[in-house]
Amino acid sequence: MRKVLVCGAGGFIGGHLVKKLKKEGAWVRGVDIKEHEFATSRADEFILGDLTRQNVVEKVLDQPFDEVYQLAADMGGAGYIFTGENDANLMHNSASINLNIIQQAYLKGVRKIFYSSSACIYPAYNQQDPSNPNCAEGSVYPAEPDSDYGWEKLFSERLFQAFARNHGLQVRIARFHNVFGPEGTWAGGREKAPAAICRKVAEAEEGGQIEVWGDGLQTRSFLYIDECLEAVERFMNSNFEGPVNIGSEEMISLNELAKMVIAISGKKLSIYNKPVSYEGVRARCSDNRLIREKLGWAPAKPLSEGLEKTYRWIAAEVAKTVSV
């Protein structure tokens, strides 16, 4: 039986990944600093532990797992990453986790390790035109990420690549672009744009308005969780190390995203664009040329389909809080 360790199993992507691995018949150990907020973990073992601590990593990575998925990080949405108030935690905590895990994976003879990087590593200067961002994998240098979160991700990519070169580890490095879906954070400041907008629409009264940060003309692409996990599986089964983008090329402005969610809800709502000082880059969209070439992968379904599933789930969660 394939033995797998999922670091960050209490998070959104990690929780869905554990479920997928179990369906495939793997034995799975999950670890996180917290339990999953919205679902009971399907892992065979789930260890609560702080992966910034080396002794915890030694405990959970105590054998040569067939696969390790390193998804654990200190992260959140724009309200957490771009204010500047959390930069020290973002960099220290995530870097400590990655340093501990890659060293222990090497010492224990792990066969293959996946690292979840981020589109936030791409230079801000290539993402100013809302209609034409450049997020090709090779465009990352000269480096100028738009946040310290992005700088840490870039450092950790180099860390994993160095262990691959010097110690022969099989690493797989993916740059995720705005993955979304049910069972993800939707309130509290760490939620991403799709979840935040779904929550605002679900909470809004008929005829009211919802708030969108900035002028709403900034563009992004969003990838539904099921599509993301399919790409990760193909990537892990390939001989390609990466880094590679895993995202959608269906670019949309935040105002248009809000209109799409409003249409799904069936409500009549207006949009208020709230000026903020930390809206992030003006444009970001996955460039999928390399992943199509190396893995033959592209998202199969439109954004609207995943967004409808996500809205229905968040609306149900909102209803639960109202009824309490």
How would you describe this protein?
The protein has 324 residues and is of the alpha/beta class. The protein has two domains: 3-179 and 223-246, Rossmann fold, CATH 3.40.50; 185-221 and 250-282 and 301-323, UDP-galactose 4-epimerase, domain 1 (Alpha-Beta Complex). 39% of the residues lie in helices and 17% in strands. It has helices at 12-23, 54-60, 78-81, 87-107, 148-167, 193-203, 225-236, 254-265, 289-295, 303-323, and strands at 3-7, 27-32, 45-48, 67-70, 112-118, 170-176, 179-180, 209-213, 219-221, 223-224, 244-246, 251-253, 270-274. The strands form four sheets. A seven-stranded parallel sheet has the order 3-2-1-4-5-6-11, sandwiched between helices. It has a two-stranded parallel sheet with strand order 7-10. Strand 1 (3-7), helix 1 and strand 2 (27-32) form a beta-alpha-beta unit. Helix 4 (87-107) packs parallel to helix 5 (148-167), helix 6 (193-203) crosses helix 10 and helix 8 packs across helix 10 (303-323). It is globular, with a radius of gyration of 19 Å. The mean pLDDT is 94.
Quickly describe the structure:
This protein has 324 residues and is α/β, with parallel strands linked by helices. It has 10 helices and 13 strands.
Number of helices: 10
> How many β strands by DSSP?
13
**Biggest pleated-sheet summary:** 7 strands, parallel
Strand fraction band? 15-25%
The class by helix and strand makeup works out as alpha/beta
Judging by the overall fold, what is the CATH architecture of the largest domain? 3-Layer(aba) Sandwich
Task: Give the CATH class of the largest domain.
Answer: Alpha Beta
Span from first to last CA? 43 Å
The fold-level CATH name of the largest domain is Rossmann fold
